[in-house]
Amino acid sequence: MSGxxxxxxxxxGLALLVAILLLGTGLRLGEAWSGRAPVYDAQGYAAIAANLxxxxxxxxxxxxxxxxxxxxxxxxxFAAGVYELSGGVHERLARMALALIGALAVLFTYLIGRxxxxxxxxxxxxxxxxxxxxxxxxxxxxxxxPLAATLLSGAVLAVLWAAGTDGHRPAGPVGAGDPPPPxxxxxxxxxxxxxxxxxxxxxxPGLLLGALALVRPEYLAIAVVIAxxxxxxxxxxxxxxxxxxxxxxxxxxxVRNAVALDRFVPVSTGGGQVLFAGSYLPSGGDPERVGExxxxxxxxxxxxxxxxxxxxxxxxxxxAQRYPGMESDPALARMGRERIWDNTSExxxxxxxxxxxxxxxxxxxxxxDVMREPAWRALHWLLVAFGLLGLGLLARQRRWEAxxxxxxxxxxxxxxxxxxxxxxxxxxxxxxxxxxxxAGAGALRARIGH
Length: 450
Hints:
The chain has 450 residues and is mainly alpha-helical. The chain is 71% helix and 0% strand. The protein folds into 2 domains: 2-171 and 197-216 and 218-267 and 356-449, no CATH class; 272-346, no CATH class. It has helices at 2-7, 10-34, 40-53, 74-86, 91-117, 119-131, 133-138, 145-162, 182-188, 203-215, 219-234, 236-261, 271-278, 290-297, 299-302, 311-322, 328-346, 348-364, 374-397, 399-418, 424-427, 430-449.
């Protein structure tokens, strides 16, 4: 027990960690129990999960305005599994199970922060994730972001473990000097350093990244980026094992799609829609304005659509008009690529401003209205500012961790710049950002103390 306490900031640090974990779990379970009015995507996930439990397949029902294949399968499959085990559609029970999984993100944030800069950094990051309002509110409905945040932070922690990094540095926080690496310190003291994890350990982050891709499909590409970093650092075999883990989880759904959709779809469709919407310059980078702007520039579409037509209906009608006979999603993907080419070649300055506005949109605020309140806006900006500070200082001392976390954050930013600029993309990375913010805050405190 004394060893555990020593590794976690003493008895006071351990007690504070337990309090933060209990707070984060309690807040999430409270949201899941009470429930919230579901946003449109949450309604879709709930409908698919209920239809799966009833034996009707992966479908939204006859009144849907878009195919169910546009939805990521991970969350509805999980909820349907809960329904199968509980003997019926019990959405509250599914939310409670998701809340328990979501609470693991608090623990994973602490463990990542501790690896980066010691227990204090982990506690700062875990405390921020425990109370981050947007993550909490999404626990009150069937939304995938809290689940994805846990899977991403768990995958990063597993990558750090499999790589054999030991970021716990009692000698001081990041930025407080350059103490020797743990293995060197242990060797000089006569202590034998622990053996690195076996190569097979890379299967664990692969499985987690595969599960993450089923919840947020863009992370399939990010998993390939991570595998590339592993290739450079740890060799071909370990990178291949990681990718095998991803494939073990994703491949069965890809095969199912090939049969059900009669084409190659790794996870979900809808990529054409988000590419076109994300490249539509007249929207100014706001996806909520895309439908309105399209109808204004194509008045003939409005006469063929209901007055309350949703964006997917508007874009499907536009695709049918532009490429009749072609499926909507491939047509929109082609139109999106054409727009990007035209924008970059003919209006490069306008397009650069458009992309900058989108990047600002994804990082400026959380995805829920509560994040516009001054206190929570301040929390978000503190996480961003101290997270960047922590990442910069980390790059000076632990280039592997900085490269890994920086690549993930950069890839998420790039997806927002290329596709629909939704702050929900950033919400998944909040545990990583909070862990980095803890490291940055600790470094600043150490500098001020000197």
